[in-house]
Amino acid sequence: MGADPLVVIATAANEMVARLWAEYLEDQGVRCLARSRGPGMGAIGSVVFFEHELLVARPAARRAADLLEPHADGQDLVVHDVG
């Protein structure tokens, strides 16, 4: 059986914010991946200041979005509709 697909649940303003919320989700029992939305490390040497996406396994998406929603401010953290 294959792994569950990953879905984007939120966008963070930069890597530091993304890692903060990824760690929060991990502390709540939700495995999370923070991924840069920029051109990649080879393009300019660092992706720290690019927006990052927070991804979780599809079955955990609703719970993860519900955990983040109270903290979303529309700038540093934007939670997406996961249906």
What letter string, H or E per element, gives the SSE order?
Answer: EHEHEHE
Total number of beta strands: 4
Enumerate how many helices there are, as a single number.
3
Q: Return the domain count.
A: 1
Largest sheet: 4 strands, antiparallel
- Gross geometry: globular
Fraction of residues in helices? Answer: 25-40%
The Rg value, from CA coordinates, equals: 13 Å
Biggest sheet strand line-up: 2-3-1-4
Mind sketching the topology for me?
Elements (H helix, E strand, L loop, with lengths): L5 E7 L2 H13 L5 E4 L4 H4 L7 E6 L3 H8 L8 E3 L4
Antiparallel strand pairs: 1-3, 1-4, 2-3
Describe this structure in words.
The chain has a single domain, classed as 2-Layer Sandwich (Alpha-Beta Plaits), CATH 3.30.70. A 4-stranded antiparallel sheet has the order 2-3-1-4, covered by helices on one side. It is of the alpha+beta class and 83 residues long. It is 30% helix and 24% strand.
Brief summary:
With 83 residues, this protein is α+β, with helices and mostly antiparallel strands. 30% of the residues lie in helices and 24% in strands. The chain is built from three helices and four strands, in the order E-H-E-H-E-H-E.
